[in-house]
UniProtKB/TrEMBL annotation:
<protein>
    <submittedName>
        <fullName>Helix-turn-helix domain-containing protein</fullName>
    </submittedName>
</protein>
<dbReference type="InterPro" id="IPR010982">
    <property type="entry name" value="Lambda_DNA-bd_dom_sf"/>
</dbReference>
<dbReference type="Pfam" id="PF01381">
    <property type="entry name" value="HTH_3"/>
</dbReference>
<keyword id="KW-0238">DNA-binding</keyword>
<keyword id="KW-0804">Transcription</keyword>
<keyword id="KW-0805">Transcription regulation</keyword>
<feature type="domain" description="HTH cro/C1-type">
    <location>
        <begin position="14"/>
        <end position="68"/>
    </location>
</feature>
<dbReference type="InterPro" id="IPR050807">
    <property type="entry name" value="TransReg_Diox_bact_type"/>
</dbReference>
<dbReference type="InterPro" id="IPR001387">
    <property type="entry name" value="Cro/C1-type_HTH"/>
</dbReference>
Length: 82
């Protein structure tokens, strides 16, 4: 699997969950104690997250890391076929 596509897919999955909760990027970043510029780069797929950062994001979104990664993996595989 292409690393870049997976990072973009993870960021997109995080964004969908955040937007689904009706929270702004800045508001969410503040709520989990993360700088908004760093968080924005996560959503754009420009950061290779550590496991602990992923867990922190998922806790803030109330989603299991395994669910978020499965969602992202499926999206990355689908985009590869296009």
């Amino acid at each position: 699997m292409d690393d870049g596509k997976l990072l973009v897919a993870v960021g997109a999955a995080i964004r969908r969950h955040r937007e689904g909760r009706g929270i702004s990027q800045e508001g969410f970043a503040d709520s989990i104690g993360m700088h908004r510029a760093y968080y924005g780069s996560v959503e754009r797929g420009r950061r290779n997250l550590t496991l602990m950062t992923l867990v922190r994001l998922c806790e803030g979104l109330d989603v299991r890391p395994s669910s978020l990664l499965s969602e992202a993996e499926a999206a990355a595989r689908t985009s590869r076929r296009r």
